[in-house]
Specification:
Radius of gyration: 18 Å
Helix content: 40-55%
Number of helices: 8
Distance between the termini: 22 Å
Shape: globular
Strand content: 5-15%
Strand order of the largest sheet: 3-2-1-4-5-6-7
Length: 266
C-alpha cells in the first residue's frame, strides 16, 4: 500500500480515447484518471450517474465524458459507443469494469442468481465488446481489457455465481483474442486481488466485526498472505490497465495478468 504515485504523464495514451464501461470510486475512477494523465481522453459509463459526472468535473469536459450505460442491453451499448464517437471522434480502447458481485449457493439460492451474474459479467462484456469493436477497428492499435476478480483464484462458498461468471469472462477474453487478433485487436484480462482503496477501506470495519478482529488485525491478516506483505492498491491495478492499453504492450494479447502483491501465483 504505497503512497508513492509514479509519473505516468509520459503520453503513453497520447491522443487516444478509452471507453470505460463501469466507473466508480475504486478501480474504475483510477482507470479514468490514468487515461487522462497519460495524454488520452475517456468516455465513462455506468448504470447510475452517481459518480461519473463528478469525475468529469474533476478531469475536465475536454478530457472526459459520461453517459449512462447498461452493458446487458444491446441498444444501450450502441448508444453509448455512438455518444463516445460523437464526443471524441474515435475510440482506441475498451475497458470492461462493470460487474455484478452476485452471491448465492447452489442449494440455498436460485439458479436465476447464477444467470444474473452471467448476464452482466459474461454476456454484458460480450455485448459491449460487440458494440465497440467496429469503432475500435478504425484505431491504429486497438485494445480491449476485461476486469476479472481474484475470486476465480480463491473460490469461496456462496460466491459461486460471481466466481463462475468471472472465470467465464477470462475464457471469453481468450476466445476474443484469437478471433480479433487477425484484425489487429488485442484482448487481455486483469485479475486484481484485494485492492486497498475506498471500497475496501469502507468494508474493513464490517469484515473485522464478522470475524472477531480489530480493523488493524483484519488488514494485517490480508497483508500476511501476500508475498510482498502488502496490499496492491486500486491505483496500482489501474496502472496495469494503462500499460495494457499502451504501445508498450503491443505484443501482449490473450493474457491474464494478476495484480495482487503475490497473494496468488500462477
Amino acid at each position: 500500500m504505497s503512497d508513492a504515485e509514479p509519473d505516468i504523464s509520459s503520453h503513453l495514451l497520447d491522443g487516444t480515447v478509452t471507453l470505460l464501461a463501469g466507473v466508480g470510486k475504486g478501480l474504475g475512477g483510477h482507470i479514468a484518471r490514468d487515461a487522462v494523465r497519460a495524454g488520452g481522453r475517456v468516455m465513462m459509463g455506468a448504470r447510475s450517474g452517481a459518480f461519473g459526472p463528478a469525475l468529469v468535473d474533476e478531469l475536465g469536459a475536454d478530457h472526459a465524458h459520461f453517459s449512462t450505460l447498461d452493458i446487458t442491453d444491446a441498444d444501450s451499448c450502441a448508444r453509448w459507443v455512438d455518444a463516445a464517437t460523437e464526443r471524441f471522434g474515435r475510440a482506441d480502447a475498451l475497458v470492461v469494469n462493470a460487474m455484478a458481485a452476485t452471491n448465492s449457493t447452489l442449494l440455498g439460492g436460485e439458479i436465476a442468481d447464477w444467470r444474473r451474474a452471467m448476464d452482466v459479467n459474461l454476456f454484458g462484456a460480450l455485448e459491449i465488446s460487440r458494440a465497440a469493436v467496429p469503432t475500435l477497428l478504425q484505431a491504429p492499435r486497438p485494445s480491449i481489457v476485461f476486469i476479472s476478480s481474484q475470486i476465480v483464484r480463491r473460490v469461496l462458498p456462496g460466491r459461486g455465481p460471481y466466481a463462475a461468471s468471472k472465470a467465464a469472462m477470462i475464457t471469453a477474453s481468450h476466445v476474443l483474442a484469437a478471433e480479433l487478433g487477425p484484425l489487429g485487436v488485442r484482448v487481455n484480462t486483469l485479475v486484481p486481488g484485494r485492492m486497498w482503496g475506498e471500497p475496501l477501506q469502507s468494508a474493513v470495519a464490517k469484515l473485522a466485526h464478522e470475524r472477531g478482529r480489530t480493523e488493524e488485525e483484519e488488514v494485517e491478516m490480508w497483508k500476511s498472505v501476500t508475498a510482498m506483505r502488502q496490499l496492491a492498491t486500486d491505483a496500482e491495478c489501474a496502472r496495469v490497465v494503462t500499460f495494457l492499453n499502451s504501445p508498450l504492450a503491443a505484443a501482449i494479447t490473450g493474457q491474464t495478468i494478476d495484480a495482487n502483491a503475490g497473494e496468488t501465483m500462477r
